[in-house]
Design goal:
The chain is mainly alpha-helical. It contains 5 helices and 4 strands; from the N terminus they run ββαααβααβ.
Length: 195
């Protein structure tokens, strides 16, 4: 199977139902940014695998680091589902495409509760960094916020499942907590903003 189709050579692409739209359409921008986020989470998972194997440059990965990977894997799968839903315009095809569930949002909240257990109270603004893994998770958080803004823009043009907006909002919170947790587990100090 060839990867290239030449269908996009004129600056358009197909949505799930076959509708052709410009590649700078709000819908493409929204799900394309989720794809970017998914790639960043994949990068964080690769860094996490290196840390679990003792190959990272951090002060020393704790055994608990392994707990994060299955959560990130589930998030990657949910992002793919959401992207598929966003790639489907309103219409008959939309009902055939899965969307995110309240259970997926609950999963993120439970994950945050678990990861937050040992975190010190947040008393200052945190700068992205601390470790490579934490910086990648912070990068994911910022791209997640951009995706959220783009999804909100898209929702002003038509109905978007409100659970998608809720999930993406919660995901950015999760990635912030996960970045802090990664620093703690790796024995790396968090980087604080100085006035």
């Amino acid at each position: 199977m060839k990867i290239y189709t030449r269908g996009g050579d004129t600056g358009t692409t197909s949505l799930v139902d076959g509708t052709r739209v410009s590649k700078d359409d709000a819908r493409i921008d929204a799900y394309g940014t989720l794809d970017e986020l998914n790639s960043i989470i994949g990068l964080a998972r690769a860094e996490l695998a290196e840390c679990s194997g003792g190959g990272c440059a951090c002060s020393g990965a704790a055994p608990d680091m392994d707990a994060l990977d299955p959560i990130l894997y589930k998030i990657q799968n949910e992002l793919f589902v959401i992207g598929s839903r966003l790639a489907t315009p309103p219409g008959p095809m939309e009902t055939k495409i899965a969307s995110v569930s309240q259970e997926a949002i609950d999963f993120l909240e439970k994950g945050m509760d678990i990861l937050s257990t040992d975190l010190p109270p947040l008393t200052r603004f945190i700068l992205p960094g601390g470790s490579t893994l934490a910086a990648e998770l912070h990068l994911g958080r910022t791209v997640c916020r951009r995706a959220e803004r783009l999804i909100i823009t898209l929702s002003s043009q038509g109905e978007i499942d409100p659970l998608i907006i809720k999930y993406v909002n919660r995901l950015s919170d999760f990635l912030f907590v996960a970045a802090r947790w990664a620093c703690l587990q790796q024995g790396e100090p968090e980087v604080f903003w100085e006035k």
